[in-house]
């Protein structure tokens, strides 16, 4: 059963998302489509983004090779305090109120390569990456580093359109104090062939909103991602986001919702397994560690004062990662 038929068979509607064409010269049209999407669901597609299909497919192929290794090999690259490396099944619990165990997925974190002798290595999320050996996975590191660099460029282009949609200068987020030394995180994800059962608290990924600025997501053709536009309603209404070959699904994070004073939406989403294995590639763009996230001047007025106090990016991320990831001591105890 292909992705479209599987979604139809699930009896859950499919969300109609706008497509932002990064090759288009009609900037006002792109801004208009993006603004509408950000006001509606905070989700949209980005097409013609400049990353070649060959590279996209190579990243998926290399991801499958890694997750196909024996667990003992993957655990040698267990994530560290910097959130670099392998995250096993159930390591993350994104919906503590409803999940009976962690997310039924495994992942791998890759960030900007920061050597041990760089002063920035002291910062959270900065440091050397963990890499599988070249003998076991040839070209793996090279593929991921190329994709990481190109995805960062795409995310920055999207950020410029977002700035225009918020009535800011296009280069607002490019400022040295915002994206001068950003925290760009690539995360490979593999969902086991599990059938999710929300009534029993079993999910591929529990319901959550993303932590930071914005997310680029590439998926295979297996459906699973669902979004909820009415998170405060009972019952909540969920819609599938259809995979789109070669495109990124883009969504806004909580940090941008704070920046925009809730004008732009960081939407609740989850992954529902249908018994098929599923692979996805997420790229998270976060601002500098010391970036102060406070209400943008174009998003406040006397009638609409700031809803949130200012917060440092690194403080916000530390809180969210700490709330959702298992303590590393859990794994150390298992080794004893």
Task: Give your account of this protein's structure.
The protein has 336 residues and is α+β, with helices and mostly antiparallel strands. The protein has one domain: Jelly Rolls. Helix content is 29%, strand content 19%. Strands 1-2-10-7-12-5-4-3 form an eight-stranded mixed sheet. The chain has a four-stranded antiparallel sheet with strand order 6-11-8-9, with no helix packed on it. A two-stranded antiparallel sheet has the order 13-14. Helix 2 links the parallel strand 1 and strand 2. Helix 2 crosses helix 5 and helix 3 crosses helix 5. The protein is globular. The chain starts with a helix and ends with a helix. Keywords: Iron, Metal-binding, Oxidoreductase. One of its GO terms (molecular function) is metal ion binding. This is Fe2OG dioxygenase domain-containing protein.
User: What is the mean pLDDT?
Assistant: 91
> Would you count the extended β strands for me?
14
Largest sheet: 8 strands, mixed
The total count of helices amounts to 9
Coarse morphology: globular
What class would the helix/strand composition place it in?
Answer: alpha+beta
Organism: Eucalyptus globulus
Domain Fe2OG dioxygenase: 181-287
Family: Belongs to the iron/ascorbate-dependent oxidoreductase family.
Pfam families: 2OG-FeII_Oxy, DIOX_N
């Amino acid at each position: 059963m292909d992705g479209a038929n599987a979604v139809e068979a699930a009896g859950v509607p499919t969300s109609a998302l706008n497509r932002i064409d990064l090759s288009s010269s009609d900037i006002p049209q792109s801004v208009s489509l993006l603004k509408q999407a950000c006001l509606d669901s905070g989700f949209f597609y980005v097409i013609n983004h400049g990353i070649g299909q060959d590279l996209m497919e190579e990243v998926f192929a290399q991801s499958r090779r890694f997750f196909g290794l024996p667990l003992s090999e993957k655990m040698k690259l267990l994530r560290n305090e910097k959130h670099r490396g392998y995250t096993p099944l159930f390591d993350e619990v994104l919906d503590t109120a409803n999940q009976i165990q962690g997310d039924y997925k495994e992942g791998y974190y890759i960030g900007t390569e920061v050597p041990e002798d760089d002063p920035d290595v002291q910062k959270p999320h900065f440091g050397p990456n963990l890499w599988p050996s070249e003998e076991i996975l040839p070209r793996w590191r090279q593929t991921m580093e190329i994709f990481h660099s190109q995805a960062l460029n795409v995310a920055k282009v999207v950020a410029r359109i977002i700035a225009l949609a918020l009535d800011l200068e296009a280069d607002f987020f490019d400022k040295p104090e915002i994206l001068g030394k950003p925290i760009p995180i690539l995360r490979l994800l593999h969902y086991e062939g599990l059938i999710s059962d929300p009534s029993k608290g079993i999910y591929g990924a529990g319901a959550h909103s993303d932590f930071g600025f914005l997310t680029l997501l590439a998926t295979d053709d297996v459906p699973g991602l669902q979004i909820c536009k009415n998170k405060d309603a009972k019952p909540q209404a969920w819609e599938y986001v259809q995979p789109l070959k070669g495109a990124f699904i883009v969504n806004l994070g909580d940090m941008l919702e704070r920046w925009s004073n809730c004008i732009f939406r960081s939407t609740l989403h989850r992954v529902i397994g249908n018994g098929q294995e599923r692979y996805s590639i997420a790229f998270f763009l976060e601002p500098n560690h010391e970036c102060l996230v406070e209400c943008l001047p174009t998003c406040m007025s006397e009638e609409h004062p700031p809803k949130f106090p200012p917060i440092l990016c690194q403080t916000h991320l530390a809180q969210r990662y700490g709330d959702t990831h298992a303590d590393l001591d859990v794994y150390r105890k298992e080794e004893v």
